[in-house]
Write a structure and sequence with these properties.
The protein is built from twelve helices and two strands, in the order H-H-H-H-H-H-E-E-H-H-H-H-H-H. With 210 residues, it is an all-alpha fold. The chain has a single domain, classed as Hypothetical protein af1432 (Orthogonal Bundle). The longest helix is centred in the first third of the chain and has 15 residues. The chain is globular and about 55 Å long.
Length: 210
């Protein structure tokens, strides 16, 4: 039997070193994670459906794999590749708990807030590096702000986001999150991210290092 720590280390190695992490993540999810309690919330993503309008790729798990592969392509632009890659894997960890069917629509309200807590607890179970765990958790917490800010929704929290995390890292993660959908258009996604950056910091940089 593999230990939680060994499973964690195998997953981290995959995230940080594989060009296409989804290939090995599928194997880990099939052969390793079911035997360690630590990963139970990630495995729940396999059976968590999403709105086919916004996520034609299918389950939360399929979306997450696409996001992680996109993140692996650009992790060199992140100020902290370890936190960035774990955030890509954990960004929707709160969806299984938050997902409901309301009036025929699949929703996952507050999965960002729920997921931040779950991500932090997950990482602190395996590491004493509280700064790393908190940094990753805050990326999870604010990954939906691109939608909220661009649509001027009441959930937007620009000041809190800028205080608790790095705007550039949120932009990178958001770029991967939006490309991690079947049929996503990179030019359209880039426009969304640039609009988000402009709204959050009108006098700052409004470009992606991609």
């Amino acid at each position: 039997m593999i230990s939680d720590r060994e499973a964690f280390q195998a997953t981290e190695k995959c995230l940080l070193h594989d060009e296409q992490p989804s290939k090995r993540l599928r194997v880990l999810a099939d052969e390793v994670w079911p035997h360690v309690r630590l990963f139970e919330n990630l495995l729940k993503q396999q059976k968590t459906e999403q709105s086919p309008v916004h996520h034609p790729e299918g389950s939360v798990w399929e979306h997450t794999l696409l996001v992680v592969d996109e993140a692996a392509k650009i992790k060199q632009f992140s100020a902290d590749a370890r936190a960035f890659m774990w955030a890509a894997l954990l960004h929707d960890i709160g969806k299984p708990a938050a997902t409901r069917v309301r009036k025929g629509r699949i929703t996952a309200y507050d999965h960002d807030k729920i997921g931040a807590k779950m991500a932090c607890e997950f990482l602190l179970a395996m590491t004493d590096d509280t700064e790393f765990a908190q940094k990753t958790a805050m990326l999870v917490r604010y990954h939906m702000q691109i939608l909220y800010v661009n649509k001027r929704l009441s959930f937007q929290d620009i000041s809190g986001m800028k205080q608790k995390t790095d705007l550039a890292e949120i932009a990178l993660l958001g770029y991967c999150d939006r490309l991690g959908r079947r049929g996503a258009d990179s030019d359209s996604v880039r426009g969304e991210i640039l609009s988000f950056l402009q709204r959050c910091d009108p006098n700052g940089k409004t470009e992606l290092p991609l």
